């Protein structure tokens, strides 16, 4: 089976537990204004590879992944666009090596399309950029209903999840949005970790290489004070959702 990849990293430390082989797939339906891999959007770009080629790249580093409690993370682009390929790759890693698998996704995918893939996924890393669909479309070019539906599906099937949110000053840091994000995260029920990630400009040079104007040219990364404010608001949203859930349980 063949897939189209953008690149890979043999020593990832932020995309799941432990040290990880991180495979970046090619192609994405979203066009996030802060994307640091805009060259991964084109589904016909990148490099075509066989499953076995990726397995050979992973194998030399297995001792590091195993000792650290790490494994394989497939990200993008958007990996669910190539769900059959990623599902087969995960299955091979499980059967040959018992290697932990993580799917780093935007969730812009109908659950039934990813059913086999999710069956081979040990951990989902889900990036929910906005709970407000209008703002989500302005930021990414797409509405968010499909993403929220995918997140709820992960909750229903009890898939272990890390939820992520990129804090972009003036774009994703409104009180109402962060509070709603926290409440939604809490409602899913199987979130092992919440990560608020500061916006960065490390992909700016790629936009310039492509000759594209960078939409957030005048936006600077958040300060630690701004990050702490966001964490507080998200936690308030989670607490509000817990109170709602407890009230509904009491009524029942």
Describe it.
With 252 residues, the protein is an alpha/beta fold. It has one domain (2-250): Aldolase class I (TIM Barrel, Alpha-Beta Barrel). It has helices at 51-58, 62-68, 83-97, 115-119, 133-140, 145-157, 175-188, 204-210, 224-251, and strands spanning 2-12, 20-25, 47-50, 71-75, 100-105, 123-127, 161-167, 191-198. Helix 4 links the parallel strand 5 (100-105) and strand 6 (123-127). Helix 7 (175-188) packs across helix 9. It starts with a strand and ends with a helix. The mean pLDDT is 96. Residues 14-238 form the Radical SAM core domain. Keywords: 4Fe-4S, Cytoplasm, Iron, Iron-sulfur, Lyase, Metal-binding, Oxidoreductase, Pyruvate, S-adenosyl-L-methionine.
The first-level CATH class name: Alpha Beta
Low-confidence stretches: none
Strand arrangement, major sheet: 3-1-2-4-5-6-7-8
Order of helices and strands: EEEHHEHEHEHHEHEHH
CATH homologous superfamily classification = Aldolase class I
Binned, the helix content reads 40-55%
Q: For the report, how would you describe the main beta sheet?
A: 8 strands, mixed
The CATH topology annotation reads as: TIM Barrel
CATH A-level architecture: Alpha-Beta Barrel
Report Rg: 18 Å
Report mean pLDDT, rounded to a whole number: 96
Please count the beta strands (DSSP E, at least 2 residues each).
8
Instruction: Tell me the β content.
Output: 15-25%
Structural class: alpha/beta
- Sum up the overall morphology in one term: globular
Number of domains: 1
Number of helices: 9
N-to-C span: 50 Å
């Amino acid at each position: 089976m063949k897939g189209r990849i953008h690149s890979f990293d043999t020593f990832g430390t932020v995309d799941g537990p432990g040290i990880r082989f991180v495979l970046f797939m090619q192609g994405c339906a979203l066009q996030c204004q802060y994307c640091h891999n805009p060259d991964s959007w084109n589904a016909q770009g990148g490099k075509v590879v066989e499953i076995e080629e990726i397995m050979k790249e992973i194998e030399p580093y297995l001792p590091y992944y195993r000792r650290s409690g790490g494994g394989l993370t497939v990200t993008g682009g958007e990996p669910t666009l190539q769900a059959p390929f990623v599902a087969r790759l995960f299955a091979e890693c499980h059967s040959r090596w018992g290697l932990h698998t993580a799917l780093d996704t935007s969730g812009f995918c109908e659950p039934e399309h990813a059913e086999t893939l999710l069956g081979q996924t040990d951990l989902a890393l889900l990036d929910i950029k906005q709970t407000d669909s209008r703002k989500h479309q302005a930021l990414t070019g797409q509405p968010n209903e499909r993403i929220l539906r995918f997140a709820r599906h992960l909750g229903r099937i009890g898939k272990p999840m890390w939820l992520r949110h990129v804090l972009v000053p003036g774009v994703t840091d409104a009180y109402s949005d962060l509070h709603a994000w926290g409440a939604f995260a809490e409602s899913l029920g199987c979130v092992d970790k919440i990560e608020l990630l500061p916006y960065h400009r490390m992909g700016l040079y790629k936009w310039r290489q492509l000759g594209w104007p960078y939409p957030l040219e005048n936006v600077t990364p958040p300060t630690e004070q701004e990050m702490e404010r966001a964490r507080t608001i998200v936690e308030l949203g989670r607490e509000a959702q817990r109170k709602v859930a407890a009230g509904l349980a009491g009524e029942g």
